[in-house]
Amino acid sequence: MLRYISIFFISILFVSCAEFENGVQETDPKPVVEGYLIPGVQVTIRIHKEIPYTADSTANKEVPIDGLAIKLTGPNSSVTLISKGSGMYQAPADFAVKVGGVYSLNFDYHGKAISAITKIPSKPVQYAADKTIISRQAVNLTPGFNNGTRPGGFGGSENSITLTWSNPDNDYFISVVENLEVNPVEIIKFPVDTTRVRPNIRFRNEPIQGTVAEIRSQSFQYFGHHRIVLFKLNPDYVALYQRNGNTTQNISTPPTTINNGLGIFTGVNADTLFVRVIPE
């Protein structure tokens, strides 16, 4: 679960861009923090340098920041995170992240005090799905198959999954789907092409404040078992998600709750359901 959560959250984080002061690029990039506190999961924080925007922005690479003395404080204890290299820092395994707890992060970087604070939300309540099995038509686009032009799985709402949960406080939620098969079988079989990139085994809906989300059958790219994780979010994550969107080209200052830095330090919580996609 930790591997999955880490991949999901890091994948949507912005590549930050150094600010400009009177047309002059800031010479002391800020630290960018990526930290998600999840009950039952060992705390891992990632920190790298702010990437300056240039005409050739593709030449810029993330530079991890190692060797920092990072203090993590919770309701009952404080710990110094262990630097694991490549900008990764980890709390001791016995440092507990608890629902409702307030946690703070503090460290010094180039003479500035960097800090952030977050609260851990409760787990989603009454999370349910109206189906545990859905079907999609297998499609073969390889030469010699006459159904190659027919899209599979566009059966309409009757073949979609409806997720529901309780949300009396109008909190934010996002649902994420991941295929669990060791060797997942694609629903649409394409002609052999060694340069073709296979579809992602994960996809997600947009953050919402409602109580219902629909996952359409055509969103699934693979047959087999999937997990559908419903994350309960703090507003700071949603602000960054909405600002980031699907691009890293916007050079305006991104929203952040990191004092004297950039990025995100936030609590999340989740519950999981499972569904199987079978051929029609």
Automatic annotation (TrEMBL):
Top-rank taxon: Bacteria
Species this chain originates from: Aquirufa nivalisilvae
Pfam families, alphabetized: DUF4249
Designated name of the protein: DUF4249 family protein
